[in-house]
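User: Predict the full complex structure for these chains.
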Amino acid sequence: MIANTLVSPLDLAVVVVYLLFMIGIGVYVYRKVPSFEEFMVAGRSMTTPILVCTLASTYYGLEDLFGTSEFAYNDGIVAYFGYTLLSLSIYVFAAFALAKRLRREKFISLPEILKRYYGRDASILGAVASFAYSIPALSLFALGRVCEVTLGIDAWVGALVLGAVALAYTLLGGLWAVAITDTIQFVLMMVTVAIGVVLLMGDVGGFAAVETFAPEGYFAPLGGMPIWLLIAYVASLLSLLVDPGFYQRIFAARSDRQARNAIFIAIGIWLAYDWLVTAGGMLARAAVHQGALPADLHSNDALLSGVILALPAGLVGVFLAGVLATAMSTTDSYSLVAGANLAYDIHRPLRNPDATDSELMRNTKIGIVISWIAGFALAFVFDRLMALWVFTATLLTSMVLVPIMVAIFWKGKRTPLAGTLSCLTGLVATIGFYLAIAWLGVENETYGTYIWSFSIGGVPYEVWQEYALYFTLPISVLGFLVGNLFGNDSQPPAKEAST
Amino acid sequence: MNGWDVFTWFNAVVLVVATSLIFIFFLRDAAGILKQVGREKE
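Assistant: Here is the predicted structure of the two-chain assembly.
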């Protein structure tokens, strides 16, 4: 545990001040959010700098901070040149192709796109998938885990207290509070990681020290990993193209140009940040090699331990606030999205189509609390959270990627049945694939996944759980084509008012 | 100092400078927007 050795009372005071400041922002913004549209998409008035901050902090959760550094700790620079650079190409596509179309049609939520193009049934299926994906279980668990490692308190207590702070300001101020707190969190994350990694580099003697023990391939851009495996990793990031939180920020932009510019600037920020996280993981391994960090250090804790070792008292507190901020910014954003899915995309069309603005606000806040409680319960009851997150991301992508991309880019025939069948076949294919792999495959403890091995004509093949999208997306396309063939061409009401 | 050290320094400087600039522009925009929203509410 790091808590008793390196975290001083001054650092703890910094963390407490940070938490009080977050609540203060929520209280301040509460008085300035008069309508549902203001609450959900900040009145569509977000400018490029605010969008950059909220994009950068929301999409870089602890799984990136610790996951990328762990990848670098074990495998070297492939974490950056293989994984990061390939995955950022998806953001470039999003900036060029998605921002303009999405912003101009004034949507409030991702399922609303399905409603406008395919009708209510597809929209509700999409909302269920979006809700499952947005439940903040992984980020609340990560929040608790960081509290346990750094502050020495039980994980569930840490997640309860800090998660409650995130819940409080989200309920008070909606997307405005989320975006403003994201900005503070963005500054903390970026500055402390930059300072911490540079100091760590000085402490261990730079990359020359890493080269003294580096295993073969540690400095190879692809690290000896086959390109198809990297592409399989990156394919799992296709969920970004239908990420409801990402869409919400584009809807909240003042113009499509501001949204596009924000994504490009965020990509530049991520390029610099990801290298520092990669370098931090590699330099922490040098610190282990030199005996400055314990030999049994878990690779997942490498960056955290290395940077805390390098920073002086006071700045450690700022760094810890930055790390906690990383998880809080993900928790608040997805709680807000999940709450809106329940209230706006599921409850409203099924039970209360004529809901007033204040009813939508109230119901969304109830939805936020429900999603937070569901996330907290899952975080400390379910023991395979990463697998759960991968499953919900696969489910969302399999169900809505095809109908949404067709809605955005295809001007021809798009029947409501096609949208509904595409979502349904994506749902059935995902559940079917996971059940089949769990039944036919064998659990591989090294990779933490299921692998089904078989041979055809003496040639051995392997199907990994991670390959789900290779099967489910074509099935979703097939469902769409069948629905388009047999469905009625009559379009649902195309330009329904947002609220 | 080898090439990777220089690359790390470069990224750290880029990150700190970019973050500072974005934060300054954020303060300028947020103050104006929140004032406007407050007036609309009144």
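The CA atoms of residues 82 and 226 of chain A lie 10 Å apart.
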